[in-house]
Amino acid sequence: MYTSKDHQTKTNFSTDCQKKSTHEFRQTNVTSTTYGQQGTTCIQTDVVTRNYTFDKSTAQFWYEGEQDYPYFVTKLTQSEMIMEDRTQDMDGDGTNDIIRRFFTRTNQKKPSQF
């Protein structure tokens, strides 16, 4: 996350349990399976499938019904994707900050048609 108030970059790393979470992107939807810690056990906490739109010309990605809250795809290769969320003011200074989320391909399935 890059905060505009203090011009700082803050990095959060996933726990080993959170690293089990997956996001399977298909042509028009993504299924997210998330894991979290419950006591000393790592458990699956949710599975959600949501439709999305990706506009190649603007590199914007948004979930169905959330056109006013797009993500910006700043990197997209066969093995990596970086999405930026520019809709949140994390430091309370009245300016939206940049939150980058990094995705890597974990298998060799045929890539979706971005």
Give the topology string: H per helix, E per strand: EEEEEEEEE
Largest sheet: 7 strands, antiparallel
What's the pLDDT, averaged over the residues? Answer: 91
Helix content: under 10%
How much beta, percentage-wise? over 45%
What is the overall shape? globular
**Total helix count?**
0
The radius of gyration over CA amounts to 15 Å
Strand arrangement in the largest pleated sheet = 3-4-5-6-7-8-9
Estimated structural class: mainly beta
Number of strands: 9
Low-confidence parts lasting 5 or more residues at pLDDT below 50? none
Q: State the end-to-end CA separation.
A: 25 Å
Keywords summarizing the entry:
0% helix, two-stranded antiparallel sheet, 114 residues, mainly beta
Q: What is the secondary structure topology, with strand pairs?
A:
Blueprint: E1 2-3, E2 8-9, E3 22-25, E4 29-38, E5 41-55, E6 60-63, E7 71-76, E8 80-88, E9 97-104
